[in-house]
Amino acid sequence: MDSITSPRKNQSSGNNNKIDGFALIKSMFFKNPDAISGAADAAFSKPLPLFSPFANSVISRCATILQKPTEELQHCFDTKYPDIVKESLIYARSLLEFCSYQALHIMTRRPNYLADKDFRRLTFDMMLAWEGPSPQDEELKIETASSSNQEAEDDGWSLFYSNAMNMAVQVDDKKTVGLEAFARIAPACTVVADVITVHNLFDVLTTSSGHRLHFLIYDKYIRSLEKVIKSTATANTSSLVSSLQLTEGEIILDIDGTVPTQAIFQHIGISAWPGRLTLTTHALYFESLGVGIYDKAAKYELAVDTKQVIKPDLTGPLGARLYDKAVMYKSTSVTEPVFFEFTEFKGSSRRDYWLDICLEILYAHRFIRKYNLKQIQQSEALARAALGILRYRAVKEAFQNFPSNYKTLLCFNLAESLPGGYTILQTLSSRLSLLNASSSQPDSVRSPTASRQIRHPISHLTLCRHGIISRNEFGIDEEELQQVGDVCVGEINPLELAVKQSKQDIGRAEAARATVDQVKVEGIDTNLAVMKEMLLPILELFNHLQRLASWEEPAKSTVFMVLMSYIILKGWIKYVLPSIFLFLAIMMGWHRYAKRGKTLEAFNITVPPSQNAVEQLLALQDAISQVEALIQAGNIFLLKVRALLLAAIPQATERTALVLVIMALVLAFVPVKYLILMGFNEAYTRQMPLRKESSERWMRRMRDWWYSIPAAPVQLIKLDDKKKK
């Protein structure tokens, strides 16, 4: 059987029944079956009884593109997918997916197919037909894409904005698409949607339309995407490629700072200079603006692991931290952090956009290094990230919409932001690992199930088809390529399942974050009161142990000492920590089942007296002074230890060395339980009436000896701070 993806002429019609070329091209995408010529209708448009009239019109257009009769398409589907469930709705949708994917495989090979309004109309009609494929569904009225031949040949925006009636037709509720249909058809065209982020793309496109996609919005998005791709292809064939000295396979993704009213400033230290910022699939390039020309570009690596940190930050003139409109780049390859300031009057949308796309490339390379991806796998991962950035640009330019972290259109950013997003990366890496196998093994050798699972570098080939990449470096024959997008007929992509699994934890994470925001309190004294109340059980236990160690009640202290000594000698001390864990687990289980369905009671905190601003500043200053004193004490301790180690006082060093030798011998030959017993009894009986006086005398001698040891000298050297002026 001939491949379903290779267009061929109908041999049965003969030379006398050849369809006029111009009429055939015009009939390929017409939604009205009556508009198709008689020869084409006889050859390709015989309706199938299991479909509605509208779905039949979509399948007939697919048959015309594929140059196969509809009955032959159904026979090919039954032969290739015998395991598809024969239930009417599932079978009809699977057959519709089969015809749509094969037609899209042919259409996406044509140049500038995104600019073709018939392509946009047909893909949207595929989604409409997928939602209601069977005759039992409400019949959708089949309308032509234009009211005249002149409008059919016109590729301008006026088709949907010419008058209010056209707009009213487009926003009719019966002509809208739901999430499930969009997720099944849109990823079949790789440039339009990614299976990982397709749900987020739908949410962004339908934010103002009640979670239903109108053709007006879909068409606007595709047009914007087509413009973005053209500008990107132009940038990758311009003189900028040679001026930046890009490496082989490096692609320019976006450029900013060329318009004087939207300047970008690079801040290093207290210096700032305007220039042009360029993002590629491997690095950031900044070209300072000289006298009418750009200086040599400074390169900031994203592909090589140099401990890069990219985050939003504040910046301003002379190093002042005033405006929240900058992206900070820091790595081991730069001596000090670099700040890129995106000037704009309101908000920080430009900064947020550049932060997202820079992180996407950084995360993509971390993914490549983590899973040790090779040549073709690396190119596919970077191409997937590049296509995500192009879609993000298209949405930004068409709708000025910036999705949140959980709704991002960038797949690697999404995997980083979702709880359990590592499962998405693991699934993606396992699918990318099949690329080498798929390129070396012909389709005829594989089983039907295996051929559906093996992927091709579709994202990389998509960039090649749109002229963003100059050549197909892996030598894949696109004529033999049968895969369309990252979707399979009648199956759910494992990547989509991984995303759904990760998104199930979003609600719990956001709810937990909301509770954290609610319990945050202001003021040092209030936070200390909350902490003290929470640690009250531990503090009470510590105070009780202190009372026992003080021997205020000799009987209780004696019983506790004898009991602990017996536990230590028997070797039961190793069961203390497991017993605590077991007790906590039993307590948690009891609360779990005893208080089922009951809300957690609020924790009552006695708020300390309110303080004014001056009192709070004084309290903060006192707390800082205490912290500074602790740090100073720690430094003095370390310097005295250094003096002992380097024999600043020979006599003290000799005694310390002798004590260390004795301790080493004791640790080497005395069993551990006896050491623990000795340490416990020594610490616990210090306040015992029989030992109190001798213990205090011994501690006093130790303090006097420690105070007599000088600290090692320290010399502070101030470096000359030479910043760029």
Uncertain runs with pLDDT below 50, 5 residues or more?
Answer: 1-40, 140-173, 437-452
Strand content: 5-15%
Question: Which overall shape is indicated by the principal axes computed on the Cα atoms?
Answer: elongated
What's the total count of β strands? 8
Quaternary structure classification: single chain
**How far is the first residue's CA from the last residue's CA?**
74 Å
Q: Look at the helices and sheets and give the structural class.
A: alpha+beta
Radius of gyration based on Cα positions: 36 Å
Largest sheet: 8 strands, antiparallel
Calculate the mean pLDDT score and round it.
Answer: 80
In short:
The chain has 725 residues and is α+β, with helices and mostly antiparallel strands.
Task: Please tell me about this protein's structure.
There is one protein chain. The protein is of the alpha+beta class. Among the domains are: 1-145, no CATH class; 245-370, Pleckstrin-homology domain (PH domain)/Phosphotyrosine-binding domain (PTB) (PH-domain like, Roll); 551-575 and 623-725, no CATH class. 53% of the residues lie in helices and 7% in strands. It is built from 30 helices and eight strands. It has helices at 21-27, 38-44, 53-66, 70-80, 88-107, 117-131, 149-153, 158-161, 164-170, 179-185, 198-205, 215-235, 240-244, 349-370, 375-399, 411-417, 422-432, 435-440, 448-453, 458-465, 494-503, 506-519, 524-534, 536-549, 554-569, 576-594, 613-645, 650-669, 672-684, 692-707, and strands spanning 252-256, 264-268, 271-280, 283-288, 298-301, 309-315, 323-330, 338-342. Strands 1, 2, 3, 4, 5, 6, 7 and 8 form an eight-stranded antiparallel beta sheet that branches. The radius of gyration is 36 Å and the shape is elongated. The N and C termini lie far apart (74 Å). 30% of the residues are buried.
